[in-house]
Design a protein that fits this description.
Layout lengths: L2 E9 H8 L5 E4 L7 E7 L15 H6 L9 E15 L15 H8 L4 E17 L7 E9 L2 E3 L3 H12 L3
Parallel strand pairs: 1-3
Antiparallel strand pairs: 1-6, 2-5, 3-4, 4-5, 5-7
């Protein structure tokens, strides 16, 4: 059984979209050398007055903007990186159906950089943990190892179809 301490720091609304199967990708300016990580909720984005404008579904984002409880937060999910694909920023709009952000948010984030699209397989932990993390912008570590035991949030057949659709998106 695998245990890890490495976590990816990400907006809580995005983590909930991943954890509820509403999203299967992350769009980044960079790739990753990690194959798996815990998904650790962040909240700093909520101090921006217009943060809800970053999301296609503002009601979903508002109701999932903050994790339950105070810091330290509950870690409910982990992900494996199935594949990372490169796409020009000019073509990123074709991926809108695979994420919850607005086209403008993604465009502003990427600028003229090519997109690295991380295809993630997300799992709900059998035993969610309340954990502190170390400081870190993208990745950090949680205070104790977490067993990677859980079930995929999207069934195999559906996930494989989604992955194929993402890979075939031009």
């Amino acid at each position: 059984m695998n245990e890890i301490t490495k976590c990816l720091n990400e907006w809580n609304a995005t983590l909930e979209a991943l954890g509820q199967g509403k999203q299967t990708i992350l769009i980044r300016k960079y790739g990753t050398n990690l194959n798996e990580f815990l998904l650790y909720p962040t909240v700093s984005y909520t101090i921006k007055k217009d943060f809800l404008n970053s999301f296609q579904d503002k009601d979903f984002a508002k109701s999932n903007s903050l994790p339950a409880g105070d810091n330290p937060y509950e870690v409910k999910y982990y992900a494996t990186v199935e594949e990372v694909i490169d796409r020009p920023s000019s073509r990123i709009g074709t991926f809108n159906k695979f994420h919850i952000w607005t086209r403008d948010h993604v465009k502003n984030y990427l600028g003229r950089n090519n997109a690295k699209i991380w295809i993630l397989r997300v799992y709900e932990l059998d035993e969610p943990q309340i954990l502190k993390r170390t400081n870190g912008m993208l990745y950090s570590n949680v205070e104790k190892p977490v067993k990677l035991e859980g079930k995929p949030v999207i069934p195999d057949e559906e996930f494989n179809k989604l992955k194929e659709d993402i890979l075939n998106t031009k």
